Protein backbone atom coordinates (compact mmCIF):
# COMPACT_ATOMS: atom_id res chain seq x y z
CA UNK A 1 0.00 0.00 0.00
CA UNK A 2 1.15 3.53 -0.82
CA UNK A 3 -0.21 6.99 -0.16
CA UNK A 4 -1.67 8.75 -3.21
CA UNK A 5 -3.08 12.27 -2.78
CA UNK A 6 -3.81 11.67 0.93
CA UNK A 7 -5.45 8.28 0.30
CA UNK A 8 -3.92 4.95 1.20
CA UNK A 9 -4.53 2.79 -1.87
CA UNK A 10 -3.56 -0.54 -3.34
CA UNK A 11 -1.82 -0.95 -6.71
CA UNK A 12 -5.05 -1.57 -8.76
CA UNK A 13 -6.75 1.49 -7.27
CA UNK A 14 -3.60 3.58 -7.80
CA UNK A 15 -3.69 2.61 -11.50
CA UNK A 16 -7.34 3.67 -11.78
CA UNK A 17 -6.54 6.95 -10.06
CA UNK A 18 -3.67 7.59 -12.44
CA UNK A 19 -5.97 7.11 -15.43
CA UNK A 20 -9.17 8.77 -14.18
CA UNK A 21 -8.43 10.95 -11.17
CA UNK A 22 -5.65 13.00 -12.66
CA UNK A 23 -6.74 13.15 -16.29
CA UNK A 24 -9.14 16.03 -16.62
CA UNK A 25 -10.35 18.15 -19.47
CA UNK A 26 -8.34 21.24 -20.25
CA UNK A 27 -11.48 22.89 -21.60
CA UNK A 28 -13.31 24.97 -19.05
CA UNK A 29 -16.86 25.98 -19.87
CA UNK A 30 -17.35 28.39 -16.97
CA UNK A 31 -15.12 31.42 -17.30
CA UNK A 32 -14.86 35.05 -16.27
CA UNK A 33 -17.89 36.94 -17.55
CA UNK A 34 -20.20 33.91 -17.56
CA UNK A 35 -23.32 33.75 -15.40
CA UNK A 36 -23.52 31.26 -12.55
CA UNK A 37 -26.01 28.59 -13.69
CA UNK A 38 -29.30 28.40 -11.82
CA UNK A 39 -29.28 25.08 -9.97
CA UNK A 40 -30.97 23.87 -6.80
CA UNK A 41 -28.58 22.82 -4.03
CA UNK A 42 -29.49 21.72 -0.52
CA UNK A 43 -28.59 23.07 2.90
CA UNK A 44 -28.94 20.68 5.81
CA UNK A 45 -31.86 18.58 4.53
CA UNK A 46 -33.51 17.45 1.29
CA UNK A 47 -36.44 19.82 1.82
CA UNK A 48 -34.20 22.89 2.18
CA UNK A 49 -33.46 23.88 -1.41
CA UNK A 50 -31.20 26.83 -2.10
CA UNK A 51 -31.00 28.00 -5.69
CA UNK A 52 -27.61 29.26 -6.79
CA UNK A 53 -29.25 32.46 -8.03
CA UNK A 54 -30.33 33.17 -4.41
CA UNK A 55 -26.82 33.17 -2.95
CA UNK A 56 -25.16 34.70 -6.04
CA UNK A 57 -26.61 38.14 -5.35
CA UNK A 58 -23.95 40.62 -4.30
CA UNK A 59 -20.34 39.45 -4.13
CA UNK A 60 -19.85 35.78 -3.21
CA UNK A 61 -17.09 33.21 -3.10
CA UNK A 62 -17.94 29.67 -4.12
CA UNK A 63 -15.47 26.85 -3.76
CA UNK A 64 -15.94 23.26 -4.76
CA UNK A 65 -14.37 20.18 -3.25
CA UNK A 66 -14.32 16.54 -4.37
CA UNK A 67 -15.93 15.29 -1.16
CA UNK A 68 -16.95 15.99 2.39
CA UNK A 69 -14.80 14.35 5.04
CA UNK A 70 -12.05 13.53 2.53
CA UNK A 71 -8.52 14.19 3.78
CA UNK A 72 -7.38 17.13 1.62
CA UNK A 73 -10.79 18.80 1.72
CA UNK A 74 -11.07 18.51 5.52
CA UNK A 75 -7.47 19.00 6.58
CA UNK A 76 -6.31 21.57 4.07
CA UNK A 77 -8.84 23.16 1.69
CA UNK A 78 -11.71 24.20 3.99
CA UNK A 79 -9.31 25.35 6.74
CA UNK A 80 -7.73 27.87 4.33
CA UNK A 81 -11.15 29.47 3.89
CA UNK A 82 -11.82 29.41 7.63
CA UNK A 83 -8.51 31.20 8.26
CA UNK A 84 -9.18 33.84 5.59
CA UNK A 85 -12.98 34.21 5.98
CA UNK A 86 -12.83 37.51 7.88
CA UNK A 87 -10.35 38.99 5.42
CA UNK A 88 -12.45 37.78 2.47
CA UNK A 89 -15.59 39.33 3.95
CA UNK A 90 -13.75 42.63 4.57
CA UNK A 91 -13.38 42.82 0.78
CA UNK A 92 -17.16 43.03 0.37
CA UNK A 93 -17.99 39.33 0.10
CA UNK A 94 -21.39 38.61 1.62
CA UNK A 95 -21.18 34.81 1.56
CA UNK A 96 -18.59 32.04 1.30
CA UNK A 97 -20.10 28.81 -0.03
CA UNK A 98 -18.58 25.33 -0.13
CA UNK A 99 -20.18 22.93 -2.61
CA UNK A 100 -19.65 19.19 -2.91
CA UNK A 101 -21.42 16.29 -4.58
CA UNK A 102 -22.72 14.77 -1.36
CA UNK A 103 -26.06 14.47 0.39
CA UNK A 104 -27.29 17.39 2.52
CA UNK A 105 -26.98 15.50 5.81
CA UNK A 106 -23.30 14.73 5.18
CA UNK A 107 -22.60 18.33 4.15
CA UNK A 108 -24.36 19.63 7.26
CA UNK A 109 -22.43 17.31 9.59
CA UNK A 110 -19.16 18.14 7.84
CA UNK A 111 -19.83 21.87 8.11
CA UNK A 112 -20.65 21.62 11.81
CA UNK A 113 -17.51 19.57 12.46
CA UNK A 114 -15.18 22.02 10.69
CA UNK A 115 -16.95 25.34 11.12
CA UNK A 116 -19.06 25.54 14.29
CA UNK A 117 -19.22 29.35 13.97
CA UNK A 118 -20.82 29.03 10.48
CA UNK A 119 -18.47 31.33 8.56
CA UNK A 120 -19.04 29.15 5.48
CA UNK A 121 -22.25 27.72 4.01
CA UNK A 122 -21.93 24.01 3.17
CA UNK A 123 -24.27 23.11 0.30
CA UNK A 124 -24.96 19.71 -1.21
CA UNK A 125 -25.00 19.22 -4.97
CA UNK A 126 -26.81 15.90 -4.59
CA UNK A 127 -26.87 14.91 -8.27
CA UNK A 128 -23.80 16.81 -9.43
CA UNK A 129 -26.02 19.16 -11.45
CA UNK A 130 -24.06 22.27 -10.43
CA UNK A 131 -20.70 20.61 -11.16
CA UNK A 132 -22.01 19.51 -14.56
CA UNK A 133 -23.45 22.95 -15.37
CA UNK A 134 -20.05 24.51 -14.58
CA UNK A 135 -18.27 21.74 -16.55
CA UNK A 136 -16.19 21.03 -13.46
CA UNK A 137 -16.80 17.32 -12.98
CA UNK A 138 -14.21 14.75 -12.02
CA UNK A 139 -14.88 11.02 -12.36
CA UNK A 140 -14.07 9.58 -8.95
CA UNK A 141 -16.39 6.59 -9.26
CA UNK A 142 -13.57 4.17 -8.46
CA UNK A 143 -12.71 5.75 -5.10
CA UNK A 144 -15.69 7.91 -4.01
CA UNK A 145 -18.57 6.15 -5.76
CA UNK A 146 -19.59 8.77 -8.31
CA UNK A 147 -18.67 11.82 -10.36
CA UNK A 148 -17.59 14.72 -8.13
CA UNK A 149 -16.46 18.36 -8.36
CA UNK A 150 -13.06 19.32 -9.53
CA UNK A 151 -11.45 21.42 -6.84
CA UNK A 152 -12.10 25.10 -7.67
CA UNK A 153 -12.76 28.54 -6.21
CA UNK A 154 -14.52 31.45 -7.84
CA UNK A 155 -15.68 34.97 -7.15
CA UNK A 156 -19.05 36.05 -8.52
CA UNK A 157 -20.81 39.38 -8.35
CA UNK A 158 -24.56 39.52 -8.96
CA UNK A 159 -24.39 36.10 -10.59
CA UNK A 160 -21.48 36.87 -12.95
CA UNK A 161 -18.09 35.18 -12.57
CA UNK A 162 -15.39 37.80 -11.84
CA UNK A 163 -12.53 35.38 -11.20
CA UNK A 164 -12.01 31.62 -11.12
CA UNK A 165 -9.23 29.19 -10.24
CA UNK A 166 -9.51 25.49 -11.08
CA UNK A 167 -6.90 23.02 -9.93
CA UNK A 168 -4.96 21.81 -12.99
CA UNK A 169 -5.39 18.14 -12.10
CA UNK A 170 -8.86 18.67 -10.64
CA UNK A 171 -7.90 17.50 -7.18
CA UNK A 172 -4.66 19.15 -6.05
CA UNK A 173 -4.43 22.22 -3.88
CA UNK A 174 -2.28 24.81 -5.62
CA UNK A 175 -4.62 27.63 -6.68
CA UNK A 176 -8.05 27.25 -5.01
CA UNK A 177 -7.25 28.04 -1.36
CA UNK A 178 -8.62 30.92 0.64
CA UNK A 179 -5.36 32.81 0.17
CA UNK A 180 -5.63 32.32 -3.59
CA UNK A 181 -9.17 33.70 -3.69
CA UNK A 182 -8.02 36.84 -1.86
CA UNK A 183 -5.90 37.61 -4.93
CA UNK A 184 -9.05 37.49 -7.10
CA UNK A 185 -10.96 40.01 -4.97
UniProtKB/TrEMBL annotation:
Record-level Gene Ontology MF annotations: thioredoxin peroxidase activity
Q: Which residues form the active site?
A: 73 (cysteine sulfenic acid (-soh) intermediate)
Listed under GO cellular component are: mitochondrion; peroxisome
Q: Which residue range or ranges hold the Thioredoxin domain?
A: 30-185
CDD domains reported in the protein's UniProt record: PRX5_like (cd03013)
Q: What positions belong to coiled-coil segments?
A: none
Keywords for this protein: Antioxidant, Oxidoreductase, Peroxidase, Redox-active center
InterPro entries assigned: PRX5-like, Redoxin, Thioredoxin-like_sf, Thioredoxin_domain
Please state the Enzyme Commission number of this protein. Answer: 1.11.1.24
Question: Which terms under GO biological process does the entry name?
Answer: cell redox homeostasis; cellular response to oxidative stress; hydrogen peroxide catabolic process
Please give the catalytic activity noted in the UniProt record: a hydroperoxide + [thioredoxin]-dithiol = an alcohol + [thioredoxin]-disulfide + H2O
Q: Which family, according to UniProt?
A: Belongs to the peroxiredoxin family. Prx5 subfamily.
Report the protein's function. Thiol-specific peroxidase that catalyzes the reduction of hydrogen peroxide and organic hydroperoxides to water and alcohols, respectively. Plays a role in cell protection against oxidative stress by detoxifying peroxides and as sensor of hydrogen peroxide-mediated signaling events.
Task: Output this protein's name.
Answer: Peroxiredoxin-5
User: Lineage of this protein's species?
Assistant: Eukaryota, Metazoa, Spiralia, Lophotrochozoa, Mollusca
